[in-house]
Amino acid sequence: MRKHVKNNVSWVGYIDWELEKFHGDDYSIMNGSSQNAYLLEEEKTVLIDTVWTPHRFDFVENLKKEIDLKKIDAVIANHGECDHSGSLTALMAEIPDVPIYCTANAVKSIEGQYGKQNWNFHIVKTGDSLEIGNGKKLIFVEMRMLHWPDSMATYMTGDNILFSNDAFGQHYAVEELFNDKANQCLLNKEAMKYFANILNPFAAILTKKLEEIGKLNLPIEIIAPSHGAIWRDNPLQIVTKYAEWANAYQENQITVIYDTMWEGTTKIAHAIASEIATQSPETVVKVFNIAKADKNEIMTEIFKSKAIALGSPTVSNSILSSVAGLLEFTKQLKFKNKKAAAFGCYGWSGESVKILQEKLKDSGFSVIDENIKAMWVPTEEDLGKIPALVTALLA
Ligand code: FEO
């Protein structure tokens, strides 16, 4: 069922309350999500994006209840990923000749996924526009690598709406649709989690793109992303936040992250956390056992941190696979401007701390020399090294 956005613009997407995972199992969904599609009914009728493949038949049936599909003059495909293009096959079966406006790369990604369909693609570049009647037009802005090569945004003049696709989105279900109706704490948390876990690798590109969009001097009254709440109350607040987040973001927080076999490494982790609170009461301290915590939530906390302490016992001359997986993910996400320390227990060979330090450096962290390497279980002597480690992390 449609939801009214502004004047002749409606939301016709899918609110996914049941969704638990996204990108396969790589992104955890804690508060539902949505795939936002938009219907513009000016002199021309335009559909912006669709919804994920499993919902394609419901999407088309619901759309038929709202309008005669033959009235659609154009489809805009801002992005080829299947959570937004996944209903195109079902939709275009009904309206095969309707033009699809998208980037050249979107033709590749769409045909790559659904096969050559002979759809009526109209390739657009930044600055190209489409008149939609009533004195309004759509202006296209390529958003290359934000976060796929095919990504673009579409700006609607007159109503001054930026349909930003993934940018500024959140995996967060908001039945009332708008940011001013959402739980503000959850909205901010989910927007940051989305940025940290999906967009952070492209932070430098994003900074340039935000400057480029700013120079266009387009008045923006609404930012309508393809996931989560629509920003209508002070919409530029999320643009301001993105500019901060894309600039080597950090808060006064240190996160202690570890996995353990027989609790020795746990003892070190807790002692480090306690010492941070003692030395710097104003610093936020968070502690996560990787085996028990959600990895995307951990990544969001790393994103917020000025430093981390990472621990693993030595196992088979290496580190626990859970810690190795987390390090691989941090490398992908390209965090900047963060210190790190390593710690861990061992029984005989004791390679874990050195391996952690090397992998942390490889992931872009500034690794301090101070570390805690404890044989069997941490002794008072081992724990006595923690104040110096924490002082170096706080410096
Ligand atoms: Fe929401 Fe990149 O798809």
What would you call the structural class?
A: alpha/beta
Strands of the biggest beta sheet: in what spatial order?
1-2-7-8-9-10-11
CATH fold topology of the largest domain: Metallo-beta-lactamase, Chain A
Instruction: Give the number of domains.
Output: 2
Mean pLDDT: 97
**Ranges with pLDDT <50 over ≥5 residues?**
none
Per CATH, the class of the largest domain reads: Alpha Beta
Concise structural overview:
This protein has helices at 56-66, 82-85, 88-94, 104-114, 184-199, 203-215, 236-245, 264-279, 295-304, 321-333, 352-362, 380-383, 386-394, and strands at 3-6, 9-11, 14-16, 21-22, 27-28, 33-35, 38-41, 45-48, 72-76, 100-102, 121-123, 129-133, 136-142, 152-156, 161-165, 222-225, 253-258, 284-289, 307-311, 339-346, 366-375. The protein has two domains: 3-245, Ribonuclease Z/Hydroxyacylglutathione hydrolase-like (Metallo-beta-lactamase, Chain A, 4-Layer Sandwich); 253-394, Flavodoxin domain (Rossmann fold, 3-Layer(aba) Sandwich), CATH 3.40.50.360.
How does this structure look, described?
The chain is α/β, with parallel strands linked by helices and 395 residues long. It folds into 2 domains: 3-245, Metallo-beta-lactamase, Chain A, CATH 3.60.15; 253-394, Flavodoxin domain (Rossmann fold, 3-Layer(aba) Sandwich), CATH 3.40.50.360. 34% of the residues lie in helices and 25% in strands. The protein is built from 13 helices and 21 strands. The strands form 5 sheets. The protein has a 7-stranded mixed β-sheet. It has a 5-stranded mixed β-sheet with strand order 12-13-14-15-16, with no helix packed on it. Strands 18-17-19-20-21 form a 5-stranded parallel β-sheet, with helices on both faces. Strand 4 (21-22) and strand 5 (27-28) form a beta hairpin. Helix 5 packs across helix 9 (295-304). The N and C termini lie far apart (55 Å). The model has no long low-confidence stretch (mean pLDDT 97). Bound molecules: MU-OXO-diiron. MU-OXO-diiron binds next to helix 2.
